[in-house]
UniProtKB/TrEMBL annotation:
Domain DEAD-box RNA helicase Q: 25-53
Occurrences of domain Helicase ATP-binding (ranges): 56-231
Organism of derivation: Protea cynaroides
Protein name (Swiss-Prot/TrEMBL): RNA helicase
Sequence motif Q motif, location on chain: 25-53
Similarity remark: Belongs to the DEAD box helicase family.
Amino acid sequence: EQDVADYRKSLAIRVSGFDVLRPVKTFEDCGFSSQLMSAIMKQGYEKPTPIQCQAFPIVLSGIDIIGIAKTGSGKTAAFVIPMIVHIMDQPELEKEEGPIGVICAPTRELAHQIYLESKKFAKPHGIRVSAVYGGMSKLDQFKELKAGCEIVVATPGRLIDMLKMKALTMLRATYLVLDEADRMFDLGFEPQIRSIVGQIRPDRQTLLFSATMPRKVEKLAREILSDPVRVTVGEVGM
Ligand code: ADP
Ligand code: MG
């Protein structure tokens, strides 16, 4: 296991949690479908970034994760690509409806970026992505959600509005991502996050990503996630 320790060190990865899976070296190591591999190649991604190397095997095995790495380190693909695998693995249950993957981000700009990134990997699989954030007509969003989707990318406030309007149900939601958790906290979204999490089945997989990990965010993470593995890349602030 010394080689695993050395490899983590070379990528500036630190982990804590029980029996953490070894980081991958290539996208091929992850066993992604050929459609997913071609979508990855189409992006020009040659190899996984450090956070992706360690997050992919953990997330693909269904384990909750706290991922901490600075801006620009490829956190979006670290949760979007395994989300596609998660969705494709679900048995088709016709009576169930609503998104399987739910991603919360602090601002509409960020939610929009994640929406675009998700679409690139979702489209080849026929997976539908809806964006739910302010600045767009609520009626249009309501109609789009009613038409159905497998992934929702949302800001917390607007997602709660849509849930209140019964535009969607969380019955099928089993993959929850809280992105830029530190910023969501700074913007005062903690009550909204707690409300959304409370509406999603407890047997979900939960992923929390952040550039920094202040104590209050760590505390929320420990409450919302189940036995998470914590992965840190490089030096990060508290
Ligand atoms: P973060 O969320 O950590 O701030 P992003 O997910 O926004 O980072 O990614 C930053 C940039 O890196 C984006 O332009 C993205 O397309 C690119 N990127 C992500 N993964 C890879 C990869 N494996 N190889 C090369 N570029 C990547
Ligand atoms: Mg990001």
